[in-house]
Write a structure and sequence with these properties.
By secondary structure, this protein is an alpha/beta fold. It has two helices and three strands.
């Protein structure tokens, strides 16, 4: 399945991902939804990353209120955000 494109109509979600060559897994998925009306799980499904939920930490950046679930590895960073907050979150969640 290919990532969504602007031709899909309701898309401001982009994907730029490369799994670790050795394990084939991702260290972290950052889902930046912007002003999208798309639900996070729908965006992950479109990007063929739904099977990563609960396995790979997921940071959802969104203007909408979103309750994360740290036990399942799902976190929220409200938009707009401070670049230092994003950097801190990415380092913490990706283990770096």
């Amino acid at each position: 399945m290919s990532p969504p494109s602007p031709e899909d109509g309701d898309c401001d979600v982009t994907m730029d991902a490369a799994p670790d060559p050795a394990s084939g897994r991702y260290d972290l998925i950052v889902l930046a939804l912007g002003a999208s009306r798309t639900e996070p799980l729908v965006a992950l499904n479109r990007a063929a990353l739904l099977d990563c939920v609960g396995v790979t930490p997921l940071l959802v950046v969104s203007r909408r209120a979103f309750e994360g679930d740290p036990g399942a590895g799902i976190y929220h960073l409200p938009f707009p955000f401070d670049a230092h907050d994003l950097n801190r979150q990415v380092k913490r969640l990706a283990g770096g």
